[in-house]
Every structure is written in C-alpha cells, then in structure tokens.
Amino acid sequence: MSVSIMTQELLALHISHNQAAMLRFIDQHPLADCAEAFSQLLTERQFTEQDVCQLLTLLPLEKQVALFGYFSLTWQEKLAEQMDAQQLTQLTELMPHDERADLLTQLEPELQQQVLDQMDSEERSDIQRLVAYPEESVGAVMTSDFAVLAADYTVEQAMQKLRSIAKQTETIYQAYVVDDQQRLQGTVSLRDLVISEPSLTVGKIMTRVLIFVRVDEDQNVAAQAISKYDLLALPVVDGQNRLVGIVTYDDAMDVAEEEADRHMHKSAAVDFTGNLKEASVGLMYRKRVFWLVLLVFGNLFSGAGIAHFEDTIQAYVALVFFLPLLIDSGGNAGSQSATLMVRALATGEVIGKDWAKMLGREVMIAGLLGVTMAVAVSMLGLWRGGPEIALVVAITMQIVVIVGSVVGMSLPFVLSKLKFDPASASAPLITTIADAVGVIIYFSVATMILDFPPTV
Amino acid sequence: MSVSIMTQELLALHISHNQAAMLRFIDQHPLADCAEAFSQLLTERQFTEQDVCQLLTLLPLEKQVALFGYFSLTWQEKLAEQMDAQQLTQLTELMPHDERADLLTQLEPELQQQVLDQMDSEERSDIQRLVAYPEESVGAVMTSDFAVLAADYTVEQAMQKLRSIAKQTETIYQAYVVDDQQRLQGTVSLRDLVISEPSLTVGKIMTRVLIFVRVDEDQNVAAQAISKYDLLALPVVDGQNRLVGIVTYDDAMDVAEEEADRHMHKSAAVDFTGNLKEASVGLMYRKRVFWLVLLVFGNLFSGAGIAHFEDTIQAYVALVFFLPLLIDSGGNAGSQSATLMVRALATGEVIGKDWAKMLGREVMIAGLLGVTMAVAVSMLGLWRGGPEIALVVAITMQIVVIVGSVVGMSLPFVLSKLKFDPASASAPLITTIADAVGVIIYFSVATMILDFPPTV
Fold first, then answer.
1. What is the DSSP letter of A453?
2. What is the pLDDT of residues A239-254, one digit of tens each?
3. pTM of the predicted model, to two decimals?
4. If both were cysteines, with which of A197, B150, B154, B245 could B142 make a disulfide (CB 3.0 to 4.6 Å apart)?
5. Interface residue B292 vs chain A (CB under 8 A)
6. Is A264's CB within 8 Å of B265's CB?
7. What is the ipTM of this complex?
8. Closest residue of B to A282, CA-based?
9. Which residues of B427-448 are buried (b: 16+ CB within 10 A; e: fewer)?
C-alpha cells in the first residue's frame, strides 16, 4: 500500500476517533511506512505532536521504540518535546545507543538534563561519550550496545549470555571476544555458535578479526569496509585497540546513501541532502546562490578573453556562431572525465599516484573524441563559413576537447592532494574553466589562421 | 595493509616459489583484499590464471569458494576457463546460487554444458530458472538458497533444521515459513528462535511478512526496501505468491552502489560503471563519444540563434562579452534543479503529480536567485558597456535563471512520464538547452532595449 493511501486511512480513523482501529492499522503495516504517514500528517497539521505521542503510549514499549526510531531526527525532537519526562526516559532507555545520543543532543538543555538525570550513571556516561565524537567520524554513527563474550566461555554459556541480552542489544548475530583490557581478540557469529558443539570454548571457534576501524576515522571508511567485505557489523576500536562500538550494516547503508547524494549534488554545485519537498524557499536559495554567483565571476575570464579579441570578432561575426558549441564541447568532455575520476577516487579504485598513468590514457581517449567531433563540426564550418572557418573550428575543437578532458580528469586529483573533496570538481566549475580556456584557444587559432594582426 | 603492499608481498612469495608462506598469507588477510591483489597481479601479467587456479586447489573448499567469489565476474570467467571440469563443478556447487548463475551464463557453451551435466537435476533447473530472469529484475539478483520452515515445527525442530542447512545456505538469520503450496506465511529470525521456548511452534512465534517484492520488479525497488525497512533479507515471490528467493542486504548494497554510480555518470552524460583503471581506450571512447557528438548537434540551436541576430552582434560587439556568462548561468541553475529533482524522484520523495506544486516553489527560488545574479552582473554591465547594456544583461540574467531552473526541474518529470530514466536529464543536456534558450532571450532583449529594427 502506498504511503499516501495510508495517510488518508489514518486521517479517516483519526477523525472518527477510532483508536482501536488505528492500533490495528499500525499492527498491519510496516512501521517505517507508518512513521512516514504520521510525518506527512504532522507536516500538513492534520495531526498534532500530542496526538502522535498519545498514540505511542498505547503501543507495547518495544513497538513504541521501533516506530519512534523511524521518524526523522527533526520529528523525533518535536515529539520528544511534547512527552512527559517519564515517557521520554522509558523510550530513550530502549533506543539504540547511537540514535538516542543523536536525539538527546537536539533537545533543549533543560529537557536533556531531565532525561539524563533519570538514567543510571553508566548509561549517562555512555551517551556523553557518544555525543563527544565529531560529526563525520565513525564514533558518531557507531552504537555502543554490542554483544561481548570472553574466550573461555563455552558455546553453551555464550548462547545463554546472548539469549539474556538479545532484547536490549542491537544485534546478537555477531559477538565480539575481548580480553580483560577490553582489547579485541576475535569474533564469533551466532551461526558459528549454533552449529558448534556446546562444550567447545568460544576461544576455539572464534575467528581472528582482520577488519576493524578506528573510532576517529571517517564514516565512509566504515561504510565502504562493510560493503566490500560483506559484513553484518564492523568493530570499532580506540587508540589502545579497545573495542568501543560497532557499526551495523543498516547504518552503513544510510551513510553510503548520504555520501552518494552528497557526491551527486556536489557535481551540480549544490550542497543539499535533506528532504526537497519539505525544504523552504529561503533554505534552497541559500544552498544554491553561493556557487551560482561565484560561477558568474568565474565567467569573467571568458568575458576578458572575448574582450581581448573584439577586433577579430568584429571582422568575422560568423565566428560567434560556433562559440557556444566549441566552449560547451570542452566543458562536456571535461565533465565526463571529472565525474569518472571523482567516483574512481572515492571508491579507492584510483589513488593519487595514478595520475600520470591516467593522464596518458586520457589524452589518447580525448584525442580520439576530438577527431570525431572535429570532423562533425568542420562540416558545419564549411556550410556556415567556408574552408578557412572550417579549419579554425576543427583545430579548436580538437584542442578544447583534449584540454577540457585533461582539466576534468586532473582537477579531482589536485583537489584531493590539497585535502579538498574531489567531488567539488563539479560540472559547472569545469564548464566555467573550459569556457575561459576555450574562448582563448578559439580566437587565438582564428587570429592565426584568418591572418589577422595580433590584437592588443 | 594496503592492497598495493599485499600485491608486492604476494609477488615476492610467488617468485621465491614459497607456496606454504603464500597460503599463510591468504589466511592472515581479508579474502576480499586477497582477491583484489590477485586481480592486480593478473592484470599486470605477473600471475597467470593457471597460477591462481592451482593456488585455489590448495585451499580448503569453503575458503576456495569464498575467495573465488570476491573476484569480479570477468576474472571469475577467465579463471573458470582454466579449471578442469571437476574443480569447476565442485566450486559452483558451493557458490551462492545467484553468483553461480551469473558465472555460468558467461562461460563458453561447451564448458557451461560440461558443468551443468555434472550437477544433479534439481540444481540444474535452479540455475536455468535464475538465468531466465531479465537483467535488471529482482530475479537476477536474488538467491534461491534460503531457509524454509513449516509452521508446525517446534522451535527446537526449527533450530535443528537450520543447523543442518547452515553450511550451504546463504543466511540462516532469517527463515521463511511457507505452506504446502510454497506460499509465504511468515518469517522467523534466528534471534526469535534463540530466545523462544523450545517447545513453542514456529507458527506461534513467526511474524507476518508485510514487506516482500515480486520477482519481476526492478532491483532498485528491492534495494530501497531493504534500506528503508532495515531488513537483513527481503523475500521474493512469484505471481502466485510463492516464495522463490530472497535478496540479502549485501546484494542490496551492491545494487544501491551501482545505481548511485549510474546516476552520477548519467548526470555527466557518460554511461559507464566498470573499473576505470582496467577499461581500454577504445571502450572509454565508445562510452563517451555518443553524447558528446549529440550535444554538438544540440548546440546548433544556439548557433542558429546567434546567426539570426548577427546584425545586432555586429553593431554591439560588447554583447559577446556577456554571452558565455549569461548562457552558463541558466545552465548552472538548471543543473542544480535537475540534480535535486532526479534524486528526489529516485528516492520516491517526490512523485509525478507533485510537479505543479514544485513548480511554483521553483519559480520563487529561481526568481530570488535571478535577482541576486542580475545585481551582480549589472555592475559588470555598467563597467563594460554603460547603463543600457547593464539593463540588457540584468533583465536577461533574471529570465535565463528562471527559465533554466524551470527546464531543469521539469525535464526529469517529463522523462519519467515518458518512461525514460529521469537521470538522463544530465547537466550537459540542460546546459545545451539553456544555451539555445539563453542566446535567443539575450539577443531578443538586446534588440528591444538597444532599439534595433528586428533582424530577419
């Protein structure tokens, strides 16, 4: 059932005050969809936050936590502000540790303090530890509730332990074996435990952990590792190799999705990853205006080039006919190269020192593309302006496609070398650079071939 | 350890013929990295396919299968061609059902037949079923080895069953309950089984399956569902609601990654998702040339516009100064809008009927952006050409930004309505359209304000 139909049904049940039917409805639909429908109804002010909070209290606690977890952080915050301290504390006690830390940092200091005060000191310090990690770090996305075993447990004891913590632990499918210093020794999957002799020790059946990540690394490193090594969860260690958390595959999927969006949007010079439908006009204006204005000033270089060659243009106005075509072609070829390279750098398929190797190949590819496009455009040149113009546009096309491609493939390398995000080598930026270079190449070639005295 | 260091170490061990050390090395490194290092060595012709095949035979069969699975399909195919039929059959018998079907379709018909002949008829028909699904469908990415239970099993019997199939089943963490017609009844997680009373029946503890997917749906639907609902695996049913397979989270991650790459590359008008470093010059030429040449012809419209206004240009050469700037700005604003919209449509955040609603907002945002950019550019206009030129470029800027944005946001809707991929609304395409429209707007405004007689 589509969420928009669910929204209508929920609204109808709400208007008729049929609470029992509403609970049945929630029972029969995926919680993620229910949360989406409620968010929709909240946005349209058909439901108030109090309505949703009250409905939550009617659900079994476990389901309440799960449903609440599917709301966006913004809605979680607004809902939390309408709950009494007891409901909120109950909820946060059972929420995944990473999600509740995210939520608490969003709350008013007063409310935050109320919730923290009601927690026992261990939970409190856990939250304080989690919120201290920088935003893009592994620490900010990991969870601190994971299953820990000792190497001298028997398989039977291990199963017993996992059974007892199953309800409040995010995953029991992967358990971690640590020594008395909390240092990571190995890992055991529930699958391994289930198929092993109950009397064996965990130390005997565990596998060495070959893949882990430091808590201060970038989240994308964790997400990429989980995807590459097909992991359910990735252990996270601190500087002393002590196990401090795990990143689960579902969090890794969210990180990867956000990263892909960010890349995509950077490639169009707009840095926005929220919900497009909910974003205000003012927000979208702010997200877009910076790059657009900056690129206007970048285009001054093209203008300056044109100004420099005004006499040539005056004498051969037909040259203007080919101007958009030639400068666009350089930009298009450059955008292709930049996009391919940004992605190859992001996946680690290509690294910094490969630049020289890639350059030679890029020149060959661009050379071939340039020949093809020069042939296409020279026919237009013949038709529009005669053989001399045809020669000018063909030579220019060949050069701008090579230059554009080389700039496009190199810029991501340069940015990454300078510790900027390679994805900032966006199509509009490449276009602007290719335009300026293209104008100068075009009119220089024209001036030479059409036998003008050099302009000043 | 980085893969390039691993490559060097493996090469050193290979040259010194130290097979025992090589096996130890494989034992101590993640198999995904080993496969990457071997692929590198194969590409550089430091290892032959026979070397790798021979090494594989020295590994325990389970490890052999896992390592082989981390090679790309291209390398799997080349390696398979060097194996004797017995080694290949052993391997394929234990491979995940989806991966072995992919591999077999790549093999020479003769070799393919040899392998199929050695399999028992059930396995053979499983493969034949899997390879019959269209390339982008759920069927082509699902696996057919999943854990099935009956509702009248006790928890204890269910555990027994899962234990017995654990080795050859891709995941036992999620088991599916079907009736005697293979119709999906419910699902039980291993976690549920582990924490439940052994004497309860599966029917008692199973949960209703609310989320499943049809085998002929697009793979992206499955990947999105797994991410949205945080699933480990998604059940796949045929037209009669019979369970025919599952899609696991790791396959969903691969699908999502490929889709993100595809989007990213479409946005730059280049359709390539392979390994950039391994791709040949010829392949890259073919992947890039089509769009580039097509866009050259698209640019003819800009040229035609310019030709139409040649007299205006001749009289006011200063106008050419602002040409790249104005047409680029329309294209840049349009690329931003298109990128935001393509992503919103892909995630389902925005649907077809939202177009009208989004249009009004887009005009407001673009109006504000246009004003800002018009102010910036009019100052340049004053400086370069006086108040009349300033007025022309300011008005043109305002119009092209609005037109560019509206085209950029609408094109993905139009493409999706026409059943094309909205992601084809690439930056270069938008740029080309915005250029042509921009040229006409610019010189029309100029002709009006600078008080020319209309040209023919």
1. P
2. 999 999 999 999 999 9
3. 0.80
4. B245
5. yes
6. no
7. 0.79
8. B365
9. bbbbbbbbbbbbbbbbbbbbbe
